[in-house]
């Protein structure tokens, strides 16, 4: 078995793509957690213990040039 640190914020960010309308409208949802849970289970199936890290660094955003 191995321990590995993973970027939990990044996983949640990716998971948010599954339910953007619900999140924007403030509807109750936990669909964004499914991606993270699937990743955790995948690592555990390969005898890897994930250590979820929330580093607080800002996530990338798109900069739109309306020029």
Gist of the model:
The protein is α+β, with helices and mostly antiparallel strands and 67 residues long. The protein has helices spanning 8-15, 20-25, 33-45, and strands spanning 2-7, 48-53. A two-stranded parallel sheet has the order 1-2.
Name a few traits of the molecule:
alpha+beta; 18% strand; 2 strands; 67 residues; elongated; two-stranded parallel sheet
Overview of the molecule:
GO terms for molecular function: nuclease activity. InterPro entries: PIN-like_dom_sf (IPR029060), XPG_DNA_repair_N (IPR006085). This is XPG N-terminal domain-containing protein. Residues 5-60 form the XPG N-terminal domain. The structure is a single chain. The chain is α+β, with helices and mostly antiparallel strands. It has one domain. 40% of the residues lie in helices and 18% in strands. A two-stranded parallel ribbon has the order 1-2. It is elongated. It starts with a strand and ends in a 14-residue tail after the last strand.
Number of strands: 2
What is the spatial order of strands in the main beta sheet?
1-2
Can you tell me the number of structural domains?
A: 1
The sequence of SSEs as H and E is: EHHHE
| Strand content range | 15-25%
The percent range for helix content is 40-55%
Number of helices: 3
Low-confidence stretches: none
Shape: elongated
The computed structural class is alpha+beta
> Taking all residues together, what is the mean pLDDT?
85
What kind of sheet is the major sheet?
2 strands, parallel
Radius of gyration: 15 Å
Distance separating the two termini: 53 Å
């Amino acid at each position: 078995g191995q321990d590995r640190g993973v970027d939990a914020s990044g996983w949640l960010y990716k998971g948010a793509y599954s339910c953007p309308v619900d999140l924007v409208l403030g509807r109750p949802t936990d669909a964004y957690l499914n991606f993270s849970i699937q990743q955790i289970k995948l690592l555990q199936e390969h005898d890897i213990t994930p250590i979820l890290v929330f580093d607080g660094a800002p996530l990338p955003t798109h900069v739109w040039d309306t020029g």
